[in-house]
Specification:
It is a single chain. By secondary structure, the chain is mainly beta. About 5% of the residues lie in helices and about 40% in strands. The strands form three sheets. The chain has a six-stranded antiparallel beta sheet, with no helix packed on it. Strands 9-8-11-6-13 form a five-stranded antiparallel beta sheet, with no helix packed on it. A hairpin with a 6-residue loop joins β1 and β2.
Length: about 180
């Protein structure tokens, strides 16, 4: 599972080795030893999530202030622009963001550790995403940051007006958000 780092070293872009022939393809979508080698972390995932979204749907920026979740985001079909924002107050990259465009054809994945807000924008007609998380969903601890916060200045691709949920539209600004220690 070859890797490359992002502008924030803890966020790791993963590109698996695909075996293609006339029948189709094969790849390991997850390998605990390879994941630990790529991230330096033991893998202790407790829940798998599955999302399908239409073009221009923007989900995020989401995080849990308690029961913080690390996420291994894998693109199954389509293309997304995937964003992680560092919310760890003591981090040298606090308040910075990194993004990767994930393409299903390459079966790419992104590791986003706990302490980050996460969001994605669908660039294809539809996109199907699977993600493993390191802690259970806890709606009482769920927090959001508005996707277009001017202090963050995330450079979202120009796709027209994004489609957001009502809670995502009402999300607070970064400067008013809760952060991690």
């Amino acid at each position: 599972m070859p890797t490359s780092s992002s502008q924030i070293p803890e966020v790791v872009f993963l590109e698996p080795r695909l075996f293609r022939d006339e029948r189709g393809f094969f790849y390991e979508s997850f390998n605990a030893a390879a994941f630990q080698h790529a991230t330096g972390l033991p893998c202790e995932f407790v829940q798998d999530n599955h999302s399908i979204s239409k073009r221009n749907v923007l989900r995020g920026l989401h995080y849990q202030i308690q029961q913080a979740q690390g996420k291994l985001v894998q693109i199954i079909s389509g293309t997304i622009y995937d964003v992680a924002v560092d919310l760890r107050r003591r981090s040298p990259t606090f308040g910075q963001w990194t993004a990767h465009t994930l393409h299903a054809e390459q079966r790419q994945a992104l590791w986003i550790p706990a302490g980050f807000a996460h969001g994605f924008l669908v660039l294809s007609d539809t996109a199907e995403i699977l993600y493993k998380v390191t802690d259970y969903w806890a709606p009482q601890h769920e927090r959001k940051i508005i996707w277009n916060d001017p202090d963050l200045g995330i450079d979202w691709p120009p796709t027209g007006e994004p489609v957001l949920s009502a809670p995502d539209l009402a999300a607070p600004r970064f400067r008013d958000a809760e952060y991690f220690a």
